[in-house]
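Note to self: keep these together.
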Amino acid sequence: MEGFGEVNSTNKDVPVLGIYKFRSLNSSLSQISFMDIETYREIFGYYTARDIVQTLPAKEQKLMDASEDDLFGGGIYSSGAPAGSIGDLEKSIKTETRVTRQIDFDTAAWNYVSILLKPGENLNASVARMKQLVKENNLPVKVLSWKQASGQVASTADLLQSVVVVFVVLLFIVAIIIIMNTLSMNALERTEEFGMMRAVGARKGFITRMFLAETFSLSVVFGGGGMLIGEIAAIILRRLQIGSGGNQIIELVFGGDTFRPVLGVTGAVIGIVGLLIVTILAVIYPVLVARKITPLDAINRH
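Structure:
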């Protein structure tokens, strides 16, 4: 392993204990290596002053204290020395960090620290609070959200999520237009009914409440039925264990290597709210059409 720290570059032989493979996005994350924290710190020089203790053997200490005349004038090392001693000399004066005691993980230096928030904690507020603490304590720390730290993977996932949201919004718009057209035709076909009701004393408010009650009843029955069918379909798809085939884009859409759709409480609430919005927007124009029907319209139509 090779690392570039602030002081020097370091090469270190590290035993390979195993080769791993990520369940998802392995082609993007395959260059990540896992190692023990002490080896990582040694490679990159991530140590605090209290952790670094240089203990030089007597021969190396003599080299460090020697003058230029001693090195090249026949003292410790001269041009008459055997060729093999040149490599020994380079090995002796090589810059190397030696840690002579066990690292205290609570006080030693870290490259980055991940903070797990409690359920219900607001991410943006937590990031802002942490930035304020870092500023107050003059710490050389950069605070990032998990999306910012994830880089391109998170950006790609956000892009795909935005595409899905736009697609769903377009479906809602199409549904609103179809439902509105159907209800408007229904109101016109019931001109005689609404006209006769108006002739016997029914007010526009009564017509409106009746039309809304019918529409929302249909919405509850068929919208609820659609959500139930969706949950059944999700259960079936989870059991089918549809794989991504190793495609990274599909893995991001699936949220893993296997498609496991889940409705859940949040999904059900979003579905109910969406159904309510679609119903309200779709029924506005048909209600106006029904309210404009008069007894004369019913007579003319008859």
